[in-house]
Amino acid sequence: MLDELLQRVRGYSPRIMETQEGFPEAAVLVPITRSDEPEVVLTLRASGLSTHGGEVAFPGGRRDPEDNDLIETALREAEEEIGLPPGLVEIVGPLGTLVSRHGIQVTPYVGVVPDFVDYQANDAEIAAVFNVPLAFFRDDPREVTHRIDYLGHSWYVPSYRYGEYKIWGLTAIMLVELVNLVYDAGIDMRRPPEHYIHLK
What we know:
Elements: H1 2-10, E1 25-33, E2 39-45, E3 56-57, E4 60-62, H2 70-82, E5 90-94, E6 98-99, E7 105-113, E8 126-133, E9 144-150, E10 153-162, E11 165-167, H3 169-183
Parallel strand pairs: 1-7
Antiparallel strand pairs: 1-4, 2-3, 2-8, 5-7, 6-7, 9-10, 10-11
Keywords: Hydrolase, Magnesium, Manganese, Metal-binding
Pfam family, one: NUDIX
GO molecular function, one term: coenzyme A diphosphatase activity
């Protein structure tokens, strides 16, 4: 399973989203465990943060001027936030670039990490580090759907519940792209799901 996953991500050409020039750049790491049943590593951001406080996210952040590229940004931020040494990460490839509601251009990078890592959450930024089986998202067990209007298009973004954690927004969009790529899940965010209620 993992080998096929890696092969698909390596051979993937992510979409290029139309963005305005001058958006600040950021990168996140999408860590996948090296195991027979791969899991994704996610964080719960500390509630006191000025942006995305209390939300589930992949480790990552804004590009520093000293970063040679966005991969370095993703690895540096993952080390700062959850104590993941860059040497333990095998970068596989990027997913599509997105723009956050704060006007930041975010590029996700899929990386393979060992099955067992003793993550050290940076208390100032991260409230928890947890794993979710990647296959959990394959059947699209969404709790609700959020409609996001962007560049003249409507996107129907799932919100997932895993235990005590709510996974939504950009993180959910990245996960949908990943499971569509890896599992041919066919989750279509351009159309509302059958149970979607249009409120007037």
